[in-house]
Specification:
Layout (H helix, E strand, L loop, with lengths): L2 H33 L5 H36 L5 H28 L7 H7 L2 H15 L3
Helix pairs in contact: 1-2, 1-3, 1-4, 2-3, 3-5
């Protein structure tokens, strides 16, 4: 195994941790934001926190996850492995959820939110479920 491959793996793991921290925290911010009075100082503060989290942490981490993950999959010869293909589906789902969170963030910032805090409490569990599935597939490789 190439020394460079191991460094790409380090980048991938760090990027996944950073991305998942945001994916788990952002919906919690949405809960608080949805409970804040529209146009209040509190709502504006949450909008800034959400924007900074997505732009400064989550988006760069997402891009690093994809770049390093594709590199590792090609170099490792995993593209035709069943566990990898299943993992890839869950990573696509996580990426789509990231995109959905970006839409929700914008709606909250613009005062056009259509959901209550309870909705965001429920959706906060989706990244966790996806993450568990991905980790099981990577570590156990059941298929």
């Amino acid at each position: 195994m190439s020394h460079f491959y191991l460094w790409i793996k380090v980048v991938h793991i760090l990027a996944v941790i950073s991305w998942m921290a945001g994916m788990l925290y952002l919906p919690r911010l949405f809960v608080y934001h949805a409970d804040a009075a529209g146009g209040s100082t509190e709502a504006k503060t949450f909008a800034v926190m959400e924007r900074r989290l997505m732009r400064a942490i989550m988006l760069p981490a997402l891009l690093a996850v994809w770049a390093s993950g594709i590199t590792l999959a090609i170099w490792g010869g995993y593209l035709h492995e069943g566990w990898f293909q299943a993992k890839f589906v869950f990573v696509i789902a996580m990426s789509a959820l990231h995109g959905y969170f970006a839409i929700v963030r914008k709606a909250l910032a613009d005062g056009k939110n259509q959901h209550g805090a309870r909705f965001f409490r429920v959706i906060n569990e989706v990244p966790t479920v996806l993450m568990v599935a991905i980790v099981i597939l990577v570590v156990v490789k059941p298929i």
